[in-house]
């Protein structure tokens, strides 16, 4: 075979020997090729007729390689979702997305699962059209981008959008023949919906006040953004065993609920120690948060240099790729790799990956006892006017009604940020947003325009502390109409009580706990009432970060039609029975479960 013939053969067959070598990372060379890679290269020799020159027969080229596997799992054992990813990589389905668009056709069955990797969710029969979830790395948005999103919500989606509990954005009621227009419009403003659903590393969150928090140790949002781009531009990191959450916490005044994430990086200031670790600023690494499974992330016993967090994150994802369960979706989250192998084993595997990369990134063992205490978190810090670290500048936290924004509010908020601020907007995990860089002289005018748009800056209203998932209104998994019920609860309680500090009420429609009911002062999870109607089980006393603890069951299920009156009783009994200005959380935690029932349900 001549060189030219060989070249033509490779072009016609779609096989490029150099490509397989170039795409093989250092760790694969060090640890050996997978069965798939061995089979591919053996077949490549046959395709190029090189097996004869190497003294191998046609029938022996691929023998003794072992059973066909997908990331170490025998193909015959894969669950249906993993078989679909094995047969076709999630990044290779654009032709299908385009065809569905041109045919005005919704994705169904396994295609619905695959399309979610591109941020397209068929939520029928709960709601017509697609829901899309955006990728907003570091929860940071420019004013012109929010204005553009207002136009997209108006012209392509259903005329509204919601900020999510990952500091992202959801739009709904997108006709199937407008999917390409959606992607083009997002591209035009520098945004994407890729990697926001199914088996993806979801929106990378960072403390929303990063870069201007008066108490932060270090601005980490740049690393969150770098990690997001690293993931989206690395083929292996698309279609991981299940969804994965990263959070970057600058240890400032606002929580990003890092301990509810699979992996959290917490800025810490390390004191003098006897472990040969140079004092200074690092990130403490925590693993395994998944509150829907009643687990908070826990300290690994390791710190790292902040600049290494993106590379460490890739190494973690590669360990997850190789050891995540691909046979049972219920056991496929990172938590179960930790449960099965232990924290130390996982950290050893991560360091092996880092060593193979050869860039010097290290997991540094160090006990938490050498961390300086972090500043206190302000529970109201994401609402209202607050000073920035830059003299004379402020950020304004805007309270939304359960994260919902109209196109007029989106465009208006963007223009306010341009007119009075620095065009810098941050979304929060509390379903609201911040306008940054507002000079002292502009604060009053900005607030007036915010309120004229029907939004609030009141930190002590029930609306400021209410978080809700979509619920049955637009999610087939929802057991209750959480958005509608949350709105009724807010109106009912605000008409009867004036709070001196917030009470966070989290409503989630199912056990997936998208609204994280386990960390709310009051957590409501959808459940069928005794008569079969929609209702809620009621939990109290949850918290995160310094207040970490799972909410405890109070009672339930309470029918949705009775939930407002029921919560009026609970809040009223708390206010009447508390000690001075005792918070709801402190009140619930100084009573055992039976005492709580006696006090709150009296």
TrEMBL record:
Q: Which residues form a coiled coil?
A: none
Family classification:
Belongs to the nitrite and sulfite reductase 4Fe-4S domain family.
Q: Where is the Nitrite/Sulfite reductase ferredoxin-like domain?
A: 127-186, 387-452
Any Pfam family from its record, for instance, is: NIR_SIR_ferr
Organism of derivation: Marinomonas colpomeniae
Q: What is this protein called?
A: NirA family protein
Q: Does the keyword 4Fe-4S apply?
A: yes
Q: Please, which domain of life does this record's source organism belong to?
A: Bacteria
The protein's UniProt keywords, in alphabetical order, are:
4Fe-4S, Heme, Iron, Iron-sulfur, Metal-binding, Oxidoreductase
InterPro entries xref list? Cbl_synth_CobG-like (IPR012798), NIR_SIR_4Fe-4S (IPR051329), NiRdtase/SiRdtase_haem-b_fer (IPR005117), Nit/Sulf_reduc_fer-like_dom_sf (IPR036136), NO2/SO3_Rdtase_4Fe4S_dom (IPR006067), NO2/SO3_Rdtase_4Fe4S_sf (IPR045854), NO2/SO3_Rdtase_FeS/sirohaem_BS (IPR006066)
Q: Where is the Nitrite/sulphite reductase 4Fe-4S domain?
A: 198-354, 495-581
Tell me which PANTHER family the record gives.
FERREDOXIN--NITRITE REDUCTASE, CHLOROPLASTIC
């Amino acid at each position: 075979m001549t060189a030219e013939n060989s070249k033509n053969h490779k072009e016609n067959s779609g096989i490029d020997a150099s490509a397989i070598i170039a795409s093989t990372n250092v760790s694969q060379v060090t640890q050996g090729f997978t069965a798939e890679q061995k089979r591919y290269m053996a077949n490549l020799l046959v395709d190029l007729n090189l097996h004869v020159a190497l003294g191998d027969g046609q029938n022996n080229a691929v023998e003794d390689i072992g059973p066909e596997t997908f990331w170490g799992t025998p193909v015959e054992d894969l669950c249906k979702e993993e078989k679909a990813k094995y047969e076709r990589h999630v990044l290779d389905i654009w032709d299908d997305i385009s065809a569905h668009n041109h045919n005005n056709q919704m994705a169904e069955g396994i295609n619905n699962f695959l399309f979610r990797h591109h941020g397209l969710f068929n939520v029928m029969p709960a709601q017509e059209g697609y829901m899309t979830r955006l990728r907003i790395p570091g929860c940071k948005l420019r004013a012109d981008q929010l204005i553009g999103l207002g136009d997209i919500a108006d012209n392509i989606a259903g005329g509204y959008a919601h900020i999510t509990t990952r500091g992202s954005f959801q739009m709904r009621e997108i006709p199937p023949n407008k999917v390409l227009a959606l992607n083009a419009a997002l591209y035009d403003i520098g945004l994407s919906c890729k990697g926001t659903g199914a088996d993806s590393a979801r929106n990378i969150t960072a403390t929303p006040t990063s870069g201007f928090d008066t108490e932060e140790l270090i601005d980490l949002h740049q690393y969150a953004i770098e990690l997001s781009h690293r993931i989206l531009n690395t083929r292996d990191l698309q279609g991981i065993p299940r969804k994965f959450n990263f959070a970057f916490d600058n240890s400032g005044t606002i929580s990003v609920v890092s301990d509810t994430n699979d992996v959290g990086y917490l800025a810490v200031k390390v004191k003098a120690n006897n472990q040969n670790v140079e004092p200074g600023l690092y990130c403490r690494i925590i693993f395994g948060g998944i509150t829907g499974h009643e687990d908070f992330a826990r300290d690994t016993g390791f710190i790292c240099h902040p600049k290494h967090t993106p590379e460490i994150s890739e190494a973690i994802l590669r360990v997850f790729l190789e050891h995540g369960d691909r046979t049972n979706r219920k056991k496929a989250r990172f938590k179960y790799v930790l449960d099965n192998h232990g924290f130390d084993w996982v950290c050893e595997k991560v360091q092996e990956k880092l060593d193979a990369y050869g860039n010097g990134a290290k997991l540094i063992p160090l006990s938490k006892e050498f961390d300086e205490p972090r500043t206190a978190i302000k529970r109201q810090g994401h609402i209202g006017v607050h000073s920035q670290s830059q003299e004379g500048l402020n950020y304004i936290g805007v309270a939304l009604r359960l994260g919902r924004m109209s196109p007029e509010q989106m465009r208006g908020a963007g223009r306010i940020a341009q007119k009075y601020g620095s065009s810098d907007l941050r979304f929060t995990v509390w379903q609201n947003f911040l306008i940054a860089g507002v000079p002292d002289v502009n604060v009053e005018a900005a607030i007036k325009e915010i309120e004229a748009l029907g939004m609030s800056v009141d930190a002590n209203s029930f609306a400021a502390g209410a978080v809700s998932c979509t619920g049955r209104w637009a999610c087939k998994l929802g057991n209750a109409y959480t958005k509608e019920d949350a709105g009724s609860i807010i109106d009912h309680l605000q008409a009867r009580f004036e709070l001196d500090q917030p009470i966070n009420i989290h409503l989630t429609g199912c056990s997936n706990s998208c609204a994280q009911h386990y960390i709310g002062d009051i957590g409501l999870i959808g459940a069928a009432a005794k008569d079969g109607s929609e209702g809620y089980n009621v939990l109290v006393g949850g918290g995160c970060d310094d207040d970490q603890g799972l909410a405890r069951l109070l009672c339930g299920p309470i029918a949705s039609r009775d939930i407002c009156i029921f919560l009026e009783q609970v809040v009223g009994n708390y206010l009447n029975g508390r000690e001075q200005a005792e918070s709801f959380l402190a009140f619930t935690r100084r009573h055992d479960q039976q005492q709580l029932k006696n006090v709150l349900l009296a």
